[in-house]
Amino acid sequence: MKEITVIGAGYVGLVTGACFADLGNRVRCVDINEAKIESLKRGKVPFFEPGLEEIVRRNQKAGRIFFTTAYAEAMKDAQFVFIAVNTPQGEEGEADLSYVEAAAREIARHLDHSLIIVNKSTVPIGTGDFVADIVRENMPDPSIPFWVVSNPEFLREGSAVYDFMNPDRIVLGSTDKEAAEKVAELYYPLQAPIIITDLRTAEMIKYASNAFLATKISFINEIANICEALGADVKVVAEGMGMDHRIGHEFLGAGLGWGGSCFPKDVKALAYMAATHGCHPQLLRAVIEINQDQRRRIVDKVRELLGGSLRNKVVGILGLAFKPNTDDMREAPSIEIIHMLQHEGARIKAYDPAAMENAKAILNGVEFMEDPYQVAEGADALVLVTEWNEFKQLDMERIRDSMRQPVIFDGRNIYDPEWMQKLGFTYRGVGRGFDGAGVINRNRPDRG
Ligand SMILES: NC(=O)c1ccc[n+]([C@@H]2O[C@H](COP(=O)([O-])OP(=O)(O)OC[C@H]3O[C@@H](n4cnc5c(N)ncnc54)[C@H](O)[C@@H]3O)[C@@H](O)[C@H]2O)c1
In angstroms, what is the span from residue 45 Cα to ligand 1's centroid? Predict the structure, then answer.
């Protein structure tokens, strides 16, 4: 059993804290957000993440996890302090390190025994040294030893607990191999491969991984647009590509592009770092541009199919969260798509199984409905933005009959175009070679 402190009780911090507690350690989570801590003290996780609340409650009951807003209390016996605060996008695309800096100052102020500081936030290359400098400059007793280890996190919202407990790899970077090995011990129960390297390389592994995944999605979206022009079906193309083990199936789903709390800011931060260090990140810039275009294209398609104007047209949006199984609206494609549709005069009705409350705080002038059927009622077009499971087997006849015009834009390619056409819908997917090109051979029907 180790004494672990986690700074920041968000998606990453709370999952890290809860999972380490579940592995038998004693964990203290500290956050500056009082409402969040109050809620956690009552055993209530203030955001949607499947399975997390159960683990928090179980470990609270067992006396292995505590929540506080007081650093003094949180750091009292800590052997390891994990920084898991947010690193949002700054004004120029750079990562905003002010929260990391504030956390490092607080660690320094309360540093009265030796410990290992582990950075789990996604931070620009060189931040490990930056944190060490801040702590060194602000600690009351400079003779107390401390070590900084970079330990980037790769979990995905929606399956965060599973991902934490079943990682593909653990990456650790430090100037001190022994410190990195001590952090590695915390992960031994997970039986995952562990890479120990220097601070900067560890920080770079995280950015390079996210940038690569975003590139894969932008790549298939570019291919989708070419498929559309040439009459091929990108879904089958991706399937055929993915069977090649050098390529793999994952992150080859053409759609409305990537969003969320990580890819947009991380790709931009990497491009910014590259540009400010004399590099020319042309691939990363293209990856970002393709992603933005993807959202514009769907609005162009809706306008075109609704007769060239969106004025006073009712557009129903299915799904608002940036991906299924989360209520996270950060950089969700739905936001930009809705803004563009509204800008052209469309009336928007929307529904999401989990993100409605968060969406209400961000989106003005949207009618939020209680289910997909209410969204379809009287709509001129439906746009499926987030591929929640509950949208996969809707009563499509009911939807068709309640719409003003049976027009559906499947932004995630979850429906079978042939089936949709048979039902009498005007159907458009992403890159499905369907706009006049006819149906492509498909040996695995994707009907829900
Ligand atoms: N969300 C993901 O899927 C994910 C995955 C991998 C890595 N990351 C990275 O992990 C980091 C955290 O992301 P997140 O999604 O968990 O963010 P989040 O916004 O959900 O949580 C961050 C928490 O830190 C708290 N905080 C901010 N400053 C603080 C301070 N000085 N002291 C104590 N608490 C403070 C905030 O109140 C908030 O509760 C980011 O760098 C992110 O890029 C996120």
Answer: 15
Q: Which of 11, 15, 154, 267 to mutate to test the pocket of ligand 1 (most atoms within 8 A of CB)?
A: 11
The helix/strand/coil state of 269 is helix
CATH number, span 209-428: 3.40.50.720
Q: What is the pTM of this model?
A: 0.93
pLDDT tens, residue by residue, 368-377: 999 999 999 9
* pLDDT tops 90 at residue 302: yes
Give the per-residue pLDDT at 434: 57
Distance 122 CA to ligand 1 centre (A): 9
Instruction: For residue 18, give the 3-state DSSP assignment.
Output: helix
User: Would you call 388 helix, strand, or coil by DSSP?
Assistant: coil
Q: How far apart are CA 426 and CA 381, in angstroms?
A: 9
* CATH level 3 topology of 3-197: Rossmann fold (3.40.50)
Residues 6+ away with beta carbon under 8 Å from 435:
228, 428
d(CA 226, CA 220) in angstroms, rounded, equals 10
Q: Are the beta carbons of 11 and 261 closer than 8 angstroms?
A: yes
Identity of residue 283? L
Indicate the domain borders of the chain. 3-197, 209-428
Q: Is 121 in the pocket of ligand 1 (CB under 6 A)?
A: yes
CA–chain centroid gap for 385, Å, is 15
Mean pLDDT of the region 146-151: 98
pLDDT band at 326 (very low <50, low <70, confident <90, very high): very high
Q: Is the pLDDT of residue 13 over 70?
A: yes
Chain-centre distance of CA 207, in angstroms? 14
Question: What is the C-alpha separation between 283 and 127, in angstroms, rounded?
Answer: 24
The span from the CA of 11 to the CA of 260, in Å, is 12
Residue entry with tokens 């683990």: 55
